[in-house]
Amino acid sequence: MPLNIRTYHDLTEPDRSGLPDQIGAQRRRVAERLATVARVVAVMSGKGGVGKSFVTTRLAVALARAGRAVGVLDADLNGPTAPQLLGLPVASCMLHDGAIEPAVSPEGVRCFSMALLLEDGRPLAFRGPEAESFVWRGTLEAAALREFLADVAWGRLDVLLVDLPPGVQRFAELAELLPEDAVRRALHAARDRGAPCLGVIENMTGGPYMGDAGDTLAREFGIPLLGRIPWHPGPEVWDALAGRVGGAS
């Protein structure tokens, strides 16, 4: 008997959960929140207990005293200490106009942390099937990071410092949530793996999409700008580009 296996796209209500739409909407909210943040700086290390949170908070205070608008996102969900290091009380966040207002330190550092949602000394506990907790925990922690970026009203910041937990997993998830750096991350990843980068091709140029992103990336990575593809390219554009890619070394 043939199996009747349906893909997610074959499902209809009430079977369809709408999860891709929910994640897509959340990613758009992340982009909107970070549109007013000039720079995101991740503070990370391969192991715990080396002082990441201390470095993050002291750097934030120094930036604030220098007149910069600065925020701290404490992404260490299981050992959050940023509020304590900034002199902020736990469980002190507020909801305003559908967004979470970050706590503000005496120096003016805007901060959000899991510690602001938990009673002092209480551990973080996710609800889910205990037998699959090792699967669900990572998924839920990644979702929490998206919510911290999407639902917290960071406002205009010169720098948002992200205090990451030990390891590289949260950094990879954070990088995926910063779409404006996707091309640069891809080039770095290719180079780190020894793959030669032939050049940069800037797509959908002209009209309302003016800029120098292609030139900037080419200069940064020391590779040629192979071509710019206009919004409505003709056959001659592809012929010229094929010649340049074929001759790139």
Instruction: Output the radius of gyration.
Output: 22 Å
Strand content: 15-25%
Helix share bin: 25-40%
The N- to C-terminal Cα distance equals 54 Å
Shape: elongated
Structure overview:
The protein has 249 residues and is α/β, with parallel strands linked by helices. It is 38% helix and 15% strand. The chain is built from eight helices and nine strands. A five-stranded mixed beta sheet has the order 1-7-2-6-5, covered by helices on one side. Strand 8, helix 7 and strand 9 form a beta-alpha-beta unit. The chain is elongated and about 65 Å long. The termini are far apart. The model has no long low-confidence stretch (mean pLDDT 75).
How is this structure best summarized?
The protein is α/β, with parallel strands linked by helices and 249 residues long.
SSE blueprint and pairings:
Elements: H1 19-34, E1 40-43, H2 52-65, E2 70-74, H3 82-85, E3 94-96, E4 99-101, E5 103-104, E6 110-113, H4 133-151, E7 159-163, H5 169-176, H6 182-192, E8 200-205, H7 213-221, E9 225-230, H8 235-247
Parallel strand pairs: 1-7, 2-6, 2-7, 8-9
Antiparallel strand pairs: 3-4, 5-6
Helix pairs in contact: 1-4
